[in-house]
Structure formats: C-alpha cells, structure tokens
Specification:
Helix content: 55-70%
Distance between the termini: 49 Å
Number of strands: 5
Structural class: alpha/beta
Shape: elongated
Strand content: 5-15%
Number of helices: 16
C-alpha cells in the first residue's frame, strides 16, 4: 500500500509540469547563477573599472599608470568612451569626479602634481607621496582593492625608485654611508634600473600585494557622503521590485479564476471586450503595485531615515514606470498559463531567476560582467538603476529617460503579447 501511495504521488508530480520545474529546474538554475557569481574561477572574477588621471605627467607617474593598466583585475579608463566615432579628451580631476558621480566607475585615481619629485616614501618621513582616490561609497569593496593594488604596483612597477628612497631613508636614520658603501649602493641601483628598463611591459618584477604604505592615499567620497543610511534606497528598490512582480502575477491570476468558474464568459458577453478587460486589470495592478512601493519607501523614510521627500518627482516617475511594467508582466504570465496552479509555479520560477540576476538579491556591480549584461534583460535591473539615480546619485528626473523608456516600452510590448495570447478567451 505504501508503494501504491508513492507511485500515485509520482504520477501526479509527473503530470504537473510546474511542480516538476520548481522541484528540479529552479534549484539548478539558482545554483548555476550563484556558482558563477561566487565560484571563484579566474575567468568569472569581475574586473574593477577605475578612472586614472595623471596630473603630474612625470616618468614616475607614467610608470605608476602603466603598472595599473597592466593589472589583469583592473579596467583602466583614461578617457570617456567615443561619441559618434570621435575620441574624447582625457579625464581631468573634475570630469573624473563627475564620472564617478554618474556611475561610470566606482573609483577615480588622481596622480597629483609633484608625485614625480617624491614618488615613494616611508611612514614616518616628513614628506610622503600623494594619491587622491575619489570613490562611490555604495561600493565598499572596490576602493579597498584598488588601494591595495596601488601599493603593489609601487613595488612591482618601480622597484628602483623604492630602493633609492629606501637608501635615502637609511642614510637619514643611521647618519650616512661610507664612500665604498655609497659606491656599491649606486652600482646596485643602476643595475636595478637597467633590469627594469629591459623588463617587458605587462610582466611584474616580483612581489605580491602588500599594505606596506609606500603611498599616501587620500580617499574621498564623492557620492553618498551626506546619506544617513546609504544602502536603504537600494534595498527598498531591490526587494520592492521583486515582491511587486509576485503581487502582479497574483493579481493577474484572477483572470484564470474567472475563466475557470465561468465568470469570464459572462463578462465578455456584455459590452466589455477582452482588450478593455485586460486594460482594466492592468490599471488596477499598476495602482496596487505603486501603492505597495509607496508604502515601502514611506516605511524606509520613517524607520530608516531614507531621504524621500526631496526626491518625490523622481520617485513618482520611477514608481509608476516600474508598476506599469510589472503589471504588464503579470498579465503576460496569466495569459501564458492555463490554470492558477501553473501560474503559481511559473511565476515563482521566472521571478526568482529574474531577481537573482537582476540585482534584487545581490548587487549587480559585484557580479561578473556576463551576469551584469544578462541582468539588463530583466525589469529588476532597470528599475533598481532608476531608483539608484534618484536616491543615491541625486540625479534630476530628466536623467531617468533610459530606465523609464525601457520600463514603459517593455510594459507596452508585454501587454500586447498578453492580449495576443488571450485571444483564446475572446467571446464569440
């Protein structure tokens, strides 16, 4: 009898495609996504983008910049991307700061004037070299990694200068060298310079990352420095969009319930056609989603001190755009499915996968480049990017047009496809 019960349950599971997907496809999908993000493979490790400005233009500063460019874990930008095929001028300190504010890179490194006169110094000396690092404080990892790589590059790209400064410090502390010691020291430094000149670019002359403090790095936040709770807006948008997708799919499921109990036939036999019915349900779903989003952000303001009221125009624009897109997405899911049970299984599978690569579960800027690009196929990514512009970067409403255009365009397309699939319900 026990075997018969098991056999009956297995037959039922095999007949229910949605349950099968949740049991086997969803775990594999999630495992694959997070294995790519956290798997630790060299080819999947995301590279950090850094803007570099060389104000000093000395031999030492150029060697430092070349050393950064040769770091395999960095993507060094010296100038903005080409526009209409025309090469843009190199970044300055001012334009680099603007680029960090706009999200072009999490960090900008400025090699300041006078670096070549004193490129390497040791802690405790009266004069120390100066590097300015402007950063976006929403990315807490990139500035620390780049600061460590700067110290590493000092040792691998200019070992002769490090040795020379070391000898000067040695003389200052111990009262100088004899003539023979000085001669030997100069000969060793000359040999080191010649070896460095003969070393091909892109190869390190030894050593690993070290926090030796050869550079004095002044780090300065240029984004989010006045935010009381900087990541609240990100999580409010990220979690909010994910749950809006679930709500929209659940709301659209009323269409399937009406079809199953015969209410849909009676509605369509009146003066209401299928297009009007879907549009009405989309309107309700949009208003409900916007209300939920508003409640979440008001709660974030009241409890976690989110700066909401100075960003009301941007919030309203992004809120309605996001609500419309997720409402149309719910209409599409309902039109694809035949039963409410199928809708529950399919919506869970699709929404969780979208949320995992779209940034609702883990920030996209920490993902590998391939996953970041794949995330742009989701509504989550565009909505989160728009809310980040509003609440984190304090950008005006006019700068939201890419996110708004994608969300509204996606909503229109999804609704059109849903209407096409809903033809099977048209009353004849």
């Amino acid at each position: 009898m026990i075997f018969s019960v098991v056999q009956t349950a297995m037959v039922s599971l095999r007949r229910d495609g949605g349950a099968l997907a949740l049991s086997f496809v969803l775990p594999i999908g999630f495992f694959s996504i997070f294995a790519v993000i956290f798997g630790g493979h060299r080819e999947s490790t995301p590279k950090l983008t850094v803007i570099v400005v060389d104000e000093d233009q000395s031999g030492a500063s150029q060697r430092l910049v070349h050393g950064l460019e040769n770091e395999g874990s960095l993507v060094v930008k010296r100038r903005p991307a080409e526009k209409k095929g025309a090469e843009q001028p190199e970044y300055t300190a001012a334009t680099a700061e603007t680029a960090v504010r706009e999200g072009a890179a999490p960090v900008a490194v400025i090699v300041t004037h006078g670096f070549g006169e004193n490129p390497i110094s040791f802690a405790g000396t009266s004069e120390r070299s100066h590097i300015l690092m402007m950063k976006d404080s929403s990315d807490m990892i990139a500035p620390q990694i780049i600061a460590g790589l700067l110290q590493k590059v000092v040792m691998t790209a200019m070992p002769d200068l490090m040795a020379e400064q070391g000898s000067k410090y040695f003389e200052q502390e111990l009262g100088g060298l004899s003539a023979e010691q000085r001669k030997r020291m100069d000969a060793g430094l000359q040999a080191l310079r010649e070896r460095e000149q003969n070393t091909p670019q892109g190869t390190a002359s030894g050593g690993s990352s070290s926090g030796g403090g050869m550079l004095r790095i002044e780090a300065r936040d240029v984004v989010g420095m006045n935010k009381q709770n900087p990541m609240v807006s990100f999580y409010a948008a990220a979690i909010g969009v994910m749950f809006l997708l679930f709500t929209a799919s659940g709301t659209a499921g009323s269409l399937l319930e009406e079809a199953e109990n015969g209410t849909l036939d009676r509605v369509l036999s009146s003066q209401v056609n299928m297009t009007m019915l879907l549009a009405g349900k989309l309107t309700f779903s949009t208003l409900l989603a916007f209300s939920q989003l508003t409640l979440m952000f008001v709660w974030a303001w009241a409890v976690f001190h989110l700066d909401l009221w100075t960003h009301i125009p941007g919030f309203v624009v992004m809120g309605f755009s996001t609500a419309f897109a997720v409402g149309a997405f719910g209409m599409l899911l309902a039109s694809v499915c035949r039963t409410r049970a199928q809708l529950g299984a399919l919506s869970t599978l699709v929404i969780l996968l979208m949320s995992s690569i779209g940034g609702s579960m883990f920030p996209r800027f920490l993902m590998p480049q391939a996953i970041q690009k794949a995330g742009l196929l989701t509504l989550n990514a565009w909505a989160i990017d728009g809310f980040t512009k509003v609440f984190w970067r304090d950008e005006p409403v006019a700068h939201l047009w890419p996110q708004v255009a994608v969300l509204l365009g996606a909503g229109v397309v999804l609704f059109a496809v849903a209407r096409r699939l809903a033809k099977r319900w048209d009353y004849s």
